[in-house]
Amino acid sequence: MGEVLMSAPAAVAREAHAGISLQVRDLRVVYDGFAAVDGVSFEMAPGESFGIVGESGSGKSTVLRALCGLTPRTGGQVQATGGGAVPAPGSRDWRRQVQMVFQDPYGSLHPRQTVDRILAEPLAIHRIGGAEQRIQRALDDVGLGDGFRFRYPHQLSGGQRQRVAIARALILQPRLLLLDEPTSALDASVQAEVLNLLEALRTRHGLSFLMVSHDLAVVTHLCPRLMVMQRGRVVETLLSADLAAHRVQTDYTRALMQAASGFQRPVRRTSSV
Fold this sequence. Notes:
Layout: E1 4-6, E2 21-31, E3 34-44, E4 49-53, H1 60-68, E5 75-81, H2 92-97, E6 98-101, H3 105-108, H4 115-125, H5 131-141, H6 158-170, E7 176-180, H7 188-205, E8 208-213, H8 216-222, E9 225-230, E10 233-239, H9 240-244, H10 251-260
Parallel strand pairs: 1-5, 4-8, 4-9, 6-7, 7-8
Antiparallel strand pairs: 2-3, 2-5, 9-10
Helix pairs in contact: 5-6, 6-7
């Protein structure tokens, strides 16, 4: 297993949280001899929103799962620092401070649990009191009022379900949110609303974001910096502004940009007879 590095603890109250910085070195995740993530390294500053892009199967979602503990790391180092005590990556306290928003709001919420129970569950797991106030505050944060509290997921729209998923991640007052294509399952008309909500939450709570997507437009909307992955490896790291200006270094990134531009209707030529 990979080595875990941890910053020295400081006597700061948990409630006074802020985004953490993250340094990942040579991260590896291997499944039955196949390297899904092979030597990935990157850094994030406190409060930064950093993106990872790549085609399906590039390993970008596996990076998130390895960081939050859903997938075992085969090798590499993960170091986290920031204001206050930062727990060791992989520990119980780390899972409280690093929360994940999954791609599919239809599959990530239990269909037989009300919104109230969905939000209360992480509080019970981490033995955190004040559930009534925290649930109400989390719903207010994502723009859902008290009227949604006792609804079931099937009674909500796709955008409302994803807002509940975001509220579930926020209710533990994390310092880093891992966003696994949080808008790809939503209608185009709703995507911008959710992205604007995420950006407002990051600013309000001082969170750090690590976001993965195959959609370059979505990532560049939230992330000033991004990393391109292919076949488990880092292809290049660049600014969103450079991507928008087509200042890229590799053919693979150019191919991603071309794919993201959508279908181009060929020019219809008329014969001169």
